[in-house]
Design brief:
4 helices, alpha+beta, two-stranded antiparallel sheet, 30% helix, five-stranded antiparallel sheet, 7 strands, 33% strand, 155 residues
Amino acid sequence: MKSAYLFFLVLLMLPGVALAQQASSRCPPLPASSGLQWEERVNTGFLACKARNEDGSKSINLLLTSRDPDLRLSKSRRVESGVFSGESLHWYLPDIAGRDETYLASRRITVVELGKGQYAQIWIDAPSTQDLAELLTLTGKLDVSAGTAYLVSGN
């Protein structure tokens, strides 16, 4: 009887543990329906977040940094407008040497200045243009306030 009680107590505590682990992430929350999970890497001055699906075929890559990424994006490669964490942006085709346009059609990259000394570099890899559209919509809904707070505080 005592072991059954402990078993149910542990079961009740598990969702709380999972939520605590999720809440401690500095990466922006993802909807459960997205099928993506964050991998987080933290160091002084940057936070790297990579959201991938189970088979790794599609991903959102996010680098929050206190340093200007100094990534030169050519206006000739600009393809659409968007939003990230409340900031307007332009998405660009990445400049990847040797890749054909069909490969690039489902990839995007951009840099956004979030505030003084806070930048986000975002790149999306999708297996299709339909998946790209879904990831662009999802990216537009992300809120990086926890990550930018980390850049300011270092905690």
